[in-house]
Description:
Layout: H1 6-20, H2 24-39, H3 42-50, H4 55-66, H5 72-83, H6 90-96
Helix pairs in contact: 1-6, 2-3, 2-6, 4-5
Amino acid sequence: MIASTSHLKYGKALYNVAKDANVGDKVLNDMESLAHAFENGALRKLMVEVCYLAASAQEKVLSVTFHGKVQEITMNLLVLLAREKKLSLVPQVAEIY
Length: 97
């Protein structure tokens, strides 16, 4: 089995963008909360339901669920991960961040 390093790229990119936007601590809080929600099953359940939807519908569900609750940078990451069918990487990206 080949190990994926995608989470490393996303985590490092997220860190750099958040740092440049001067919202590093806020994005860290977002990622910790998302990782915790994933581990508790709440986010995992949402991801299972969302993965069968078209990309535009996934974005809408994520937007409705997280709008105003996470930083725009974090929201952009979630949308990107959904488009790439990699929402399951949220806990690993949070760990790298």
